[in-house]
Amino acid sequence: MARLLAPRMLNLFAFLACVVAMAGALYLEHVEGLDPCPLCIFQRVGVIAAGLFFLLALIHNPAALGQRIYAALAAIGAIGGGAVAARHVWLQSLPADQVPACGPALDYMMDVFPMGEVLRMVFTGSGECAEIDWLFLGISLPAWSLLVFIGLSATALFQLFRRHA
């Protein structure tokens, strides 16, 4: 059991979880034809960021301080992605009459507006983000993403606060 909780193994498992999450998202986009909404794209950024830091920690395999630095950076990506996923789940839970109007596509917003305005518009939400296009076991894709982010955050925080020998 102690071997499974070794920093290198946890980083490997967390990195593989990020790879599986991204592979699933890309499968749903390119094979099933589900276009990602702006909040989905920001969740992908969170998965990629966390995955990158878990991979770097896996490859580098530093001592305690380095493990904590990588874990803190992975936690930022995972917690940030989790916050976006939680917002997405909340938008999907709104009654139809309270769903915000659909906004422009993310690529258009990034071409036309400054980044601060783009972030404000994305996190305010839009009607397209409130649609539930896919369910697995009765759970929407943003809710699955939130579960993944909770697991990634827990792993990163465990790595951050664990006692190193």
Structural class: mainly alpha
Overall mean pLDDT stands at 85
Q: Which word captures the global form? A: elongated
Q: What low-confidence regions span 5 or more consecutive residues with pLDDT below 50?
A: none
Radius of gyration: 17 Å
CATH homologous superfamily - what is it? DsbB-like
Main sheet strand line-up: 1-2
The rounded distance between the terminal residues' Cα atoms is 16 Å
Number of H/I helices: 7
Q: How is the main sheet built? A: 2 strands, antiparallel
Q: N-to-C SSE series?
A: HHHHHHEEH
Q: Please report the total strand number as a whole number.
A: 2
Q: Report the top-level CATH class.
A: Mainly Alpha
CATH architecture: Up-down Bundle
Question: What does it look like?
Answer:
The chain has seven helices and two strands, in the order H-H-H-H-H-H-E-E-H. The protein has 165 residues and is mainly α. It has one domain (10-95, 103-161): DsbB-like (Bromodomain-like, Up-down Bundle). The protein has a two-stranded antiparallel ribbon with strand order 1-2.
